[in-house]
Amino acid sequence: MRLTTRGRYAVTAMLDLAQHANRGPVTLAEISNRQQISLSYLEQLFAKLRRGGLVGSVRGPGGGYQLDRGAEQISVAAIIRAVDEPIHATSCKDKGTEGCRRDTRCITHDLWARLGEHIYHYLESVSLAQLMRDGSALAMLGEAEVDHTEMVLRGPH
C-alpha cells in the first residue's frame, strides 16, 4: 500500500483537531503551526474532509474547524477515503478487474488484494479516540522511561 502525504497529513491534522477540540473550533493556522503542514495544503484537505462529513467549519471570530462526529466515530479509513486516498495494496489500473501493470492480471494479484483488505479493515477499526488514547499512553510511558533512566543515572537519594 502506498499512502501518500495527502493521507498521512489528513490523519495527522484530524488527530490534532480531535486533541484540541475541547477548546472550541480550531483554526487551520494552529494545526499548520503545530504539525508543520502547509496552510494551503490543509485548506485543500479540509475542504475534502468537510465534503466527506467529518468536519464542520465555524465562521467569524473564534471560528475554525470542529469534528462533525465524536472522535470515537471517525475511523482512520474514513479520513483517508474522504481525501480520495486509495486503500489498496495492488498496482492495478483503475479500469476493469484485469491488468495490474500489464494487460493481464499478475500472478500475485490475489495476495496483494487480500493484504489491501486486511489493511482497510485495520484502518477501519482504528478511531481518532483510540489514537488519542494510545498517544497519551505512549507519552506517559516515555515519561516513565525518562524518570527511570534519570533515577538509574543519578542513583537512589
From TrEMBL:
Keyword Transit peptide part of the UniProt annotation: no
Domain of life, source organism: Bacteria
Any one Gene Ontology molecular-function term assigned to this protein's record: DNA-binding transcription factor activity
Residues spanning the signal sequence: none
Pfam assignment, any one: Rrf2
Gene3D superfamilies (alphabetical): Winged helix-like DNA-binding domain superfamily/Winged helix DNA-binding domain
Keywords: DNA-binding
Assigned GO CC terms: cytosol
PANTHER family on file: HTH-TYPE TRANSCRIPTIONAL REGULATOR ISCR (PTHR33221:SF5), WINGED HELIX-TURN-HELIX TRANSCRIPTIONAL REGULATOR, RRF2 FAMILY (PTHR33221)
UniProt name for this protein: Transcriptional regulator, BadM/Rrf2 family
Organism: Magnetococcus marinus (strain ATCC BAA-1437 / JCM 17883 / MC-1)
